[in-house]
Structures are given as C-alpha cells and as structure tokens.
Automatic annotation (TrEMBL):
UniProt name for this protein: Patatin
GO-annotated molecular function: hydrolase activity
Biological source species: Physcomitrium patens
Family matches, as SUPFAM superfamilies: FabD/lysophospholipase-like
Keywords: Hydrolase, Lipid degradation, Lipid metabolism
Enzyme Commission code(s) on record: 3.1.1.-
Entries under InterPro entries matching the protein: Acyl_Trfase/lysoPLipase, PNPLA_dom
Highest taxon above the source species: Eukaryota
Amino acid sequence: MEWGPDIALEPFFGSLREEIGIGGRHSTQGGGDDLEFLGKKTSELRGKVCVLSLDGGGTPGIIPARLLAYLEELLKQKSGDQDARIADYFDVVTGTSVGGLIATMLFTGDENSRPLFRAEEAWKVMAERGREVFKKVAKSSVWSKLRGKSSKSSRFSVKPLEQVLKEYLVREDGSALTLRDTIKPVLIPCYDLTTAAPFLFSRADALENQTWNFNLWEICRATTATPPFLPPACVTSVDGKTSCTAIDGRVVMHNPTAAAITHVLHNKREFPSVRGVEDLLVLSLGTGQIDQTYMYDTVRGWGALQWVKPLAKIVLDGVADTVDHTISMAFDGGVTKQDRDGHE
C-alpha cells in the first residue's frame, strides 16, 4: 500500500459534518443526540465519558490518522478555538499497533501539558516517514521466510522505526518520554510471549507505580512488533523491574474498544461518576473494510501455505468485528457495521 493516500473524507462524515460525527468501519456509540457531545471539550461535559478507540491495521492505520486530522479541523471550526486538539474532546484513548502510535502522538504532553502533536502533524509524520521506516531488508518474499529459505529473520529492519520513535517521543532535553507524560488515560496492548498473555500498557498503572511506567517509544515498538515483518520487542519498565517480550497487540486486541470500556467502568478513581455504558460516548475507528470472499471450488484444494495469509486476515478482522458487534449491542440504539451494510 502507498503511504499518504488521498482519502475521500466526506463519505465517512456524510450528514454528520455539522454534528462533528464520524463513520468508517466502526461507529460512534452512545446513540442519537450524543453525537453533539463531540463538539464540547471534556472539561465542559457532565455525565459523559468520551472514549476514543483506534484499531490496528499496519499501513492502513493511516486512514484513522487522516480522519482524526479532519475531525480536529471541524472541532476548531465548531469551537472557535484554533488551538483545539483531539485530546481536549476525549477522556480516554486506546490504540493497537499503528493505532497505538496515533494515540501516543495525540495524547502525549509537552512541558505545558498540551499535546505534542496536532492531528494533522501526526498523520503527516506517519505518511512522510512511513517509507523510510518500512524499508525491506531483503528481496525474498514472506512465503520464502515461511518455508525457511530466507536468511533474514524479518522483512523490515527495525532500526529505522526505532530511530523515528526516539526522534519524536522525547522531551526538549532529549530524555525519553514515558507513560506518565501522557495527558489523559492511555491504554495500549501487546502480547507478551514470556507469559503467553496480553499485556496492557496503562497510564493509570504507571502513575501508581514506576514498575508499570515504560518509555513511550518502547511501547510503540512493542505494539507494532509483527513477525515476520518486524521482530519481537523486549521492553523494560523505567525502574527495570518489569519486562515483556512483546509482539503486535492485534493478535489479542485488534479492536481495543472493549478494553477501554472495561477500564473506565472499573476505574472509580478517575471516573467515579460512571455507572454503566449509558454514561459513555465511544468513537471507534477501524482501518477500512475489504470483504474478500472465497468459493468452495477455489479453496478446497488449498494447502497450508495458501491458507496462511487469508486465514490471518479472517481471524484479525473477525475479532475486530465481534468486538464491534458486542459493544454496539451493549448500547441502546447502537449501530454495527453489519447494520449499516444492511446485512442484518
């Protein structure tokens, strides 16, 4: 996929432009007039907690980044505040893989506790530096690696990615920014090979104990580590007491919306007034939908290697769609992707 696509944004926003709504693969959950809440800063709201959830998706992850840049411009127009940022309008953010990178860039604070990046800046960084980051280290295909015919362990070198992350996620004095430097609750998942379990980087945990505080560049490295494209990441907390061997968060939380909702419902310290989903407004952004179908006559003779790529996509998309459907049904009047497509 080419980086920096020319995305037609109006179909995603449609008639919701004036209400500051958004569409895409997932939806805004909360129902009806709740869309108007996105036109108010969280400090102005009473009784609603606004959650932003960003799916993983490799290079298509630039799609929600571009949508958020568009949304931020609409919020500036609606509020009359030219310094309005996405982080001003959401109480919690969660993101997987590339979605985790976007979340980190938009919700990390500078020395004045204002977001380091405008949404427009964030998506342009991704678009402009993407080609540099994902340089192939060998001409051999992924399938060659699966057959064990390639001497290279990963398709891309991890050094360019780490260099870019270290370049942007630092303080003015050059020291690394950490989870404690985020300005709102942040949740970013990965999968820990050491414990064979999901691992969730959480700002709330980091504020409570340095044992759970990690450098942000390492968190982004962890949630995007996708073998065989990028190798696993060994990340360690700032005090050296906690570590994990991480791979891409998409394998467990391709759509991390449920994790964010659970976090809010059980985090009474930061969200004491939340009683249930009726107190939430959730904006969940996916990375587009390509419905690839297969006929029986086509797949009945497939071998193991032919199934690897389509099965991986089916599993990842299936997990994301299941979360979308479950969360949608938890909200009164929630709309699922299937509802919008007329499949139900």
